[in-house]
Amino acid sequence: MRAPDAVFDLHGQGVAEAASNVERFLQVQARVRRGGTVRLITGRGRLGGGAPIRTRVRTLLKRLQAESRIVRDYVLEESEGSYLVRLKG
Known about the structure:
Layout: E1 6-9, H1 15-32, E2 37-41, H2 52-66, E3 71-76, E4 82-87
Parallel strand pairs: 1-2
Antiparallel strand pairs: 2-4, 3-4
């Protein structure tokens, strides 16, 4: 995937708030950057505490991809603290 056209950092948000904000962000980006790539910074979670935002965002991305809406594909970056998402064209 290429470098992102836009970045959305979810640090400081609760799980439900982050999921809702990500969906709105992706909807807007899909309209203004058709076929573009965005980065969603979820963080890696606390040591031993899991990564609930990352998990919820992954579930959302899977659903949007399966529904053939907004998301063409996505990848968890090597740092495991962010996703690169390719939007539908």
